[in-house]
Write the structure tokens for this entry.
Amino acid sequence: AQSVTQLGSHVSVSEGALVLLRCNYSSSVPPYLFWYVQYPNQGLQLLLKYTSAATLVKGINGFEAEFKKSETSFHLTKPSAHMSDAAEYFCAVSEEIASKIIFGSGTRLSIRP
Amino acid sequence: GAVVSQHPSRVICKSGTSVKIECRSLDFQATTMFWYRQFPKQSLMLMATSNEGSKATYEQGVEKDKFLINHASLTLSTLTVTSAHPEDSSFYICSAGQQGDTEAFFGQGTRLTVV
């Protein structure tokens, strides 16, 4: 069975600082991995996805993530945090393209002025 | 990317009544759609897989008689919450994808409040 674990339910960084949100996955087959962002009372927005092409994936809003098979990780990073990045972030895994997605527990990102 | 539309975006209903949520793929055909539920400050949990022309597949712990799913066409799946209770209040969101896509597309979600 597939699953994802997000380490840290809440991460707080200063504006301009590095953002690092951790995600580890478990999958019996080569996975498809995603990061989504959710602003309060809104739906999901796809930040980026890994679909077995390049291991370093660049997404929207300056975010990127690196797929590391040896570590079963797919951590999300952004070099410099903006206040507008404050939101809930979900790591997710799927074993088939455009199939059901299993979400992590989420990480709330807060940005300090 | 493809567009998935949910309706309504918000609904308030009385305890004991039923409410229907629609999920439409606007510019593609979806033989499979997925329904998720998100309680406040929690993650999204897959409820069921909706299959066009056949019965839905429910995840463990989800009552199929309470959450009725109908996928009568290739562009529409509906979720009906029957005999709603306040504990059913949640954010319900659907997704769909088509062959060849590298991701599933999500609807905007439906905020259900049962009073």
